[in-house]
Amino acid sequence: MWGIIATWRMALEGIEKAEGMLKEGGDAGDAIEAAVREVEDFPFYKSVGYGGLPNEEMEVELDAAYMDGDTLDIGAVAAIKDFANPVSIARRLSKEQANNLLVGEGAEKFAHKEGFERKNMLTDRARIHYRNRKKEMVQSELKPYSGHDTVGMVCLDSKGKMTCATSTSGLFMKKKGRVGDSPISGSGFYVDSKVGGASATGLGEDVMKGCVSYEIVRLMAEGLHPQEACEKAVAHFDRELKERRGKAGDMSLIAMNNKGEWGVATNIEGFSFAVAVEGQKPAVYLTKQENGKCVHELATKEWMENYMKTRTAPLKEL
After folding, report:
1. Domain containing 23: what range?
2. What three-state secondary structure class fits 275?
3. Predicted pLDDT of residue 144
4. From the candidates 71, 123, 150, 201, which is the catalytic residue?
């Protein structure tokens, strides 16, 4: 059995690429890296990689992580600029005995020394998004933060190896140097090939307040189905935040166990995810809450067409 699951519709093309590799007996590490790179390289997905939304100084700072569920090796980068595929740098760091999480200039020096591709990640389209948001803020006191759709994935190959990975440009117009949950083990991601893996997307500042990805893996280890584990962990932490702080930020988590079974839970409306498992073609689902449970429905052709139309529509400056 093999499978791969990812946050958001933007992961579909990456999932399709990984599916081809996994069908041929490919490695879960290679498949998940290729899948995330597909998202990072597409300029119209404005929360990941090339074309990602900039910080308040109009710089694109990227966070990414990779974890090997066989060895529990972890690699991560945070606030890295001007490199094309942060997930690949994170995977390379996972092979180091120490210095597995590098940030800013240190991450950039490592990437340069290792020969990773330098690239200006700020696109003209992202500049327009930035300038429009600045004008909107002046006119209507709009809060700058939005666009925090991390791509997170969990992958299982036919040999039973599991991996997970994340990549994001973080909050739109964040403070320079801000880091969210995505490169933080246990919060943004966690995987153990003996059990399964999980990954998160949402408001990193709130997701980081709990080790939700790890908690889902722990619950799966106790025998819970990934869907049960996701719902229990997300509902509990959402409730805790609201009781202690009066509110909870966006939080959506995906999971897959070592049998290829999967689950998804969210505290928002309109969360989408992509999944492919042996015997099932890659598909995009939408999740909604009904009576305290998360119900998944296949995205319609109309929804899929509108998604791409919206994201690739020409932009004009306000």
Report:
1. 3-311
2. strand
3. 61
4. 150
